[in-house]
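User: My instructor asked us to take a sequence, write out its structure as tokens, and then describe one feature of it. I'm not sure where to start. Here is the sequence I was given:
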Amino acid sequence: FTSPSQLLAVWSVQSLQPLKGMQSSFTAIVASRGYHVYMKSSWKTPMKSDLLRIKINPNNDEDPYCVEIQRYGEFKQLKVKQWIKVGHVPREISRHVNYFLQLGGETAVCVHDTKLHRSLTALKGLEILLEMTFKIKS
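Assistant: Let's start with the prediction itself. The structure tokens for your sequence are:
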């Protein structure tokens, strides 16, 4: 999508049904923001085989629509496999993704590019590019 509002524009807002003539899913490249925070503790080397998901985080003080990106794996500090936060959906689209998830939409997430990218925002943090597929449950 080229603008945040396009995320939900193809679906009827109330029922999360495809509008006539529209597909029930689409895929977009989305940056995982905040990699510079998690790279030392929970996501040292992003790989295309990493098992990822997104989840609403209602307790984020900076973004009330925060959607975090989580990776499943074993972490040294914990010695157990579990889901752990490794980034978040950019604030520019978090409200739309959050709303989509609240309405029962499904997502599939995978690493698109393992190279680190500098954020285009003023903060210039590190990002990982992800491929996210947004789908309406059938």
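For the description part of your assignment, you could build on this observation: The longest strand covers residues 106-118. Try explaining in your own words what that tells you about the chain.
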